[in-house]
Here is the input.
Amino acid sequence: MSPFHAWNDKPIYIVWRGSDKSPIDPLHPALVSSNAQDPATWLPWELASEYARALGAGYGVGVVIHEGSGLLCVDLDKCIEDGAVSGLAVSMVREARRMCPDVYVEYSMSGKGLHIIGPYSGPPPPHRNKNKELKMELYSKERYIALTGNLLGPL
Here is the structure.
């Protein structure tokens, strides 16, 4: 089951490969990377997961944040040091979970950042709103997030 239960059957997932998280066409994995923003490459959760499992180590599933998806992602970089989550990140995760109990929070690929992914309603917030000082970006369209499945537990 997808981490975004309401989106299990929606084609908003892609398969990625390697440490650079290149999106691929799972039917032709040896070919050049595919375009994560091309709806023709999007799959439902189960199919994307099956392809990634069948392709083996080094492949994974990503979620496509696109206009109309109803999802957004807060990407917090370098908010974990020596296994401890920064105070700001703890506050942001707690507030996100208070506002939306279905929010999905996972460690990023580096293990030093967090992805806070969840639904929103109303007009989308500005895309790629970046705060360099806080090492944080907000994505509301034209982005895919390589999911790790390494969930952040209760804080």
User: Anything to note?
Assistant: The chain has two domains: 5-65, 71-138.
